[in-house]
Design goal:
- The structure is a homodimer.
- The first copy, chain A, is built from eight helices and no strands.
- The first copy, chain A, folds into two domains: 58 residues, Arc Repressor Mutant, subunit A (Orthogonal Bundle), CATH 1.10.10.60; 146 residues, Tetracycline Repressor, domain 2 (Orthogonal Bundle).
- Chain A is mainly α.
- Chains A and B meet through helix 5, helix 7 and helix 8 of A and helix 5, helix 7 and helix 8 of B.
- The first copy, chain A, binds a DNA duplex through helix 1 and helix 3.
DNA sequence: GATTCTTTCTAACAACCGTTTGGTAGAGTA
DNA sequence: TACTCTACCAAACGGTTGTTAGAAAGAATC
């Protein structure tokens, strides 16, 4: 490994770090003000630079959203795949998936908020086709799990599976809009309470 | 009542009807494409007129959003107030509130979607202060109900009330994003399934 | 049939948007 | 000290935005 090579790697690493820094800032602003309503000048402001300077690091505003969302989704699916590979029973799989989901919210809160609010509009463009594909795979995974759970006798058979799927999906992810890392409850505690609710209901027996 | 007066009332009614028509169109477009991302020309297109013509009926794009949201919230609170006035037990009150909520989604789906997606950003302006007030009152109502339910022994006491509140709030309203009037399930059927899940849980006993 | 009133169109406006271009300060290298 | 490269600034660009003013078409009224 030549010195020239090491330098190139050093600057590449520094560059990637700055990118990640700017993306974190952008995600925060996009999440709080909304992607369409946010100007690149506002993102730059929050990062302490001028609007045009962002274009040294990124091709476009859209490519920022792209990188934010795809990074989050890749990590999410890596976590999900680990759970699925463990090959647990339906109930334990659901528990683990929910726990991982709240973990994702903890680590990628602004990205999850963006996904919730903007994915439907963004997904129309070909660049964001992976959003639609992720959504499809997500639904397939959960529906298969819920059907298996009913077959195994772990879940109630008198509920509409498609409805249960939507309820679980929505409640889990919408938590990103109010969750505060470092708040009263940790992501793990919220996951625990959430599971107690979803599995057992809120009614006193 | 003079003829002149009757005419004035007639045109005022026709005018209000046209307003409502345009607002329904606007709400639909705002809901599907997002408020900030939607141009007034797109709204006008959907209504079959030109962009500038909208300003004969409305002061601004913002005032359209205002009228859409306040109309929905007024009707929602009227329904909620009827439920609260009936003075039922905690469990029946919750059931009735959830049913009314899905009824609101059925009648005001685009407005509910808008409220979900945009209220946070809009509420920063003084014109939309009622959004914040409605949110506060909504939380107060639900928290009071849940606390009463625990006291009465209707609801489990081992759950975090604030979390249960958010859980119920979010799942109910987020249904507006996928609910289709005239679809496989009616609003009442969804409410029924939803209540079965929230009250009893999805786990087989 | 002339007049008025209602609703829409035509045509623009200033402001703002995402983006580009060319320059520059400063650190690293020789 | 001279050169290079990185990260940013300064200033502008064409296009789009919400919005406005005046004209025009058509129905209602007299």
């Amino acid at each position: 490994m030549s010195p020239r090579r090491r330098d190139a790697e050093g600057t590449a690493a520094a560059r990637a770090e700055r990118r990640a820094e700017l993306l974190a800032t952008a995600a925060e602003v996009f999440a709080t003000r909304g992607y369409a309503a946010t100007t690149v000048r506002e993102v730059a402001d929050a990062a302490g630079i001028l609007g045009g300077s962002l274009y040294y690091h990124f091709d476009s505003k859209e490519s920022m959203a792209d990188e934010i969302l795809s990074t989050f989704l890749n990590e999410m699916w890596a976590a999900y795949d680990r759970v699925l590979a463990a090959d647990l029973g339906a109930r334990d799989t659901l528990t683990a998936l929910v726990a991982e989901s709240f973990g994702c919210i903890d680590r990628h809160r602004p990205a999850v908020v963006m996904y919730q609010n903007e994915s439907r509009h963004l997904a129309t463009g070909p660049r964001f086709a992976y959003l639609t594909e992720s959504r499809r795979r997500f639904e397939e995974m959960w529906m298969t799990l819920l059907e298996r759970g009913v077959r195994e006798g772990a879940f109630r058979a008198d509920l509409d599976i498609a409805l249960v799927y939507r309820f679980i999906r929505d409640t889990v992810w919408v938590a990103a809009t109010w969750y505060q890392p470092g708040g009263r409850l940790t992501a793990a505690q919220i996951a625990e309470q959430y599971l107690a609710m979803v599995l057992g209901g809120i009614q006193h027996e």
